[in-house]
Design goal:
The protein is α/β, with parallel strands linked by helices. It is about 35% helix and about 10% strand. The chain has a single domain, classed as 2-enoyl-CoA Hydratase, Chain A, domain 1 (Alpha-Beta Complex).
Length: about 220
């Protein structure tokens, strides 16, 4: 065994000690999804040909060494042609957030999630902690990922698509319009509306950004 191989194994030893506990799904049109609970053990396996991916680091655990290995993984996988959409929130390990805030991001890296004192994502989203946790747990408990992505209202906003294009090294060019509800005067009081469907807003936005890049032929 060469010295370089030995050093690599030693660096990866903390992650190899535990079996991976990642959750992986397909999101269609070449986009993958990987939820990491503990880094670096749950980082996706190296692929001969990287592809666009949503890397879910919400509530993920990891220390400084895990953050460094995450950075190495991103440098290999994230590019203008294979963007990585990283989902984060206040529950993401402080070491991981600090690392993402400090690095010069590679092309194709886009972070999404609620803003916090520790980290300002590229695309900050307004999501209540309770709603986000409920949607996150729903997938863990068997809810189909498609059900958590249903678009019940808004389309992707122009500024979000522009940020994704900029971070993938592409010019800013997209347009989206929001359609608002209309009120019909003179109608009788309606029955109480059922609770809104459970939607994973962060994941939904990441998928929409990927679809925008495809529509603009940037991928």
């Amino acid at each position: 065994m060469t010295k370089s191989c030995l050093l690599l194994l030693l660096a990866l030893a903390p992650g190899l000690a535990a079996a991976p506990d990642r959750l992986e799904r397909e999101l269609g049109l070449g986009l993958g999804y990987c939820r990491a609970h503990t880094l670096p053990a749950d980082l996706p396996a190296a692929a001969a040909k990287p592809r666009p991916l949503v890397l879910d680091l919400r509530y993920a655990r990891g220390d400084d060494s895990a953050a460094t290995l995450l950075g190495n993984w991103l440098k290999f996988h994230s590019s203008a042609a294979t963007p990585v959409f990283v989902l984060v929130n206040a529950g993401t390990a402080p070491a991981l957030l600090a690392y993402l805030a400090a690095i010069e991001p590679p092309a194709g890296l886009v972070t999404l999630g609620p803003a916090s004192p520790a980290f300002e994502p590229d695309i900050p989203l307004k999501i209540s902690p309770a709603d986000e946790r409920a949607a996150y747990d729903a997938l863990e408990h068997g809810t189909p990922i498609e059900a958590l992505l249903a678009d019940h209202s808004a389309k992707p906003r122009h500024d979000e698509a522009a940020i994704a294009l900029e971070r993938t090294g592409s010019p800013e060019e997209s347009a989206a319009a929001d359609d608002g509800p209309s009120d019909a005067p003179g109608t009788a009081p309606a029955a109480p509306a059922p609770p809104p469907p459970l939607v994973d807003t962060s994941l939904q936005r990441a998928v929409n950004l990927h679809r925008t890049l495809l529509a603009l032929r940037k991928l």
